Amino acid sequence: QVQLVESGGGLVQPGGSLRLSCVASGLILDYYAIAWFRQAPGKEREGVSCISSSSSSSYYEESVEGRFTISKDNSRKAVYLQMNSLKPEDTGVYYCHEEKSDSWGQGTQVTVTS
After folding, report:
1. How far is Cα 103 from Cα 101, in angstroms, rounded to an integer?
2. Would you say the C-alpha torsion 14, 70, 38, 67 has a positive or negative sign?
3. What does DSSP assign to residue 14?
């Protein structure tokens, strides 16, 4: 059974940084792509970034391009989302997702406010 556990969220001022972690169990991460989604209050969940199984390719939603960086450490079974230059509109619950098993973590709250 695949389990994903996110951590690293918090309260930060605009312009600040956070690093989210997603630790996976029940799978060999080398063979799986992982995506980050977020859900702002009153809005639908949206894709933010994803990384291929080999880490050779990645994708970023337009609004986070150049500010967020996704990375993967297969030996630690972890995927990271480095978020810099945070904006209030980045506020939301951030989830990681594995598509093949359609597994979701419980989410971690990110709040960007002055």
Report:
1. 5
2. positive
3. T
